[in-house]
Amino acid sequence: xxxxxxxxxxxxxxxxxxxxxxxxxxxxxxxxxxxxxxxxxxxxxxxxxxxxxxxxxxxxxxxxxxxxxxxxxxxxxxxxxxxxxxxxxxxxxxxxxxxxxxxxxxxxxxxx
Amino acid sequence: xxxxxxxxxxxxxxxxxxxxxxxxxxxxxxxxxxxxxxxxxxxxxxxxxxxxxxxxxxxxxxxxxxxxxxxxxxxxxxxxxxxxxxxxxxxxxxxxxxxxxxxxxxxxxxxxxxxxx
Lengths: 112, 117
Hints:
The structure holds 2 protein chains of 2 kinds. Helix content of chain A is 0%, strand content 54%. By secondary structure, chain A is mainly beta. In chain A, strand 4 and strand 5 form a beta hairpin. Chain B has strands spanning 5-7, 10-13, 19-24, 31-38, 42-50, 53-56, 65-71, 74-79, 88-95, 107-108, 112-116. In chain B, strands 2, 4, 5, 6, 9, 10 and 11 form a 7-stranded mixed sheet that branches. In chain B, strand 4 (31-38) and strand 5 (42-50) form a beta hairpin. Chain B is globular. In chain B, 36% of the residues are buried. The chains are: A mainly beta, B mainly beta.
């Protein structure tokens, strides 16, 4: 089955700086890669996703890049703000009605 | 629009008791997923359904766990008998899959926090 590795487990950045979280996956058939943000005690919420026919996608301060050859994808957050502090999860699936395989999560801490 | 609804939000029970978690997917969605979240194991897929049919239950940890989806608007996850190691947050998620024009996006419910004493 699919295996998703996520790094780092904890990331502390100064407010206003950029944050990058990286994930690798093992199943070459995976073609859908969402990122979820989870605040303490809350549900995971989708912040951005990318499909295998696209190399990069951007939504305001958030961007995701995908390298299918190397089987890795990354989340980039620019101009970080205190409200970006949360746990971020990457995931992979074969798309359609397939279940998601999640990475272990990255605790992002924005230092004022 | 109502999102995914789960009940109960919190459940505290004693070892050996039966536990039933409930989920109502977003109206019109045809795929439903059950996930479990713990500090040690993170977010794990337990089972998922498409058009009320179980597709993959390989993530169900043991025979003590079972899930049903009797209709498009309701699913249950049952643990019988429950054990302390089953303590976790259980999330239900739903999505709309049109086959070749799949939308993929899974929307999570608020979760049920289960504590087994």
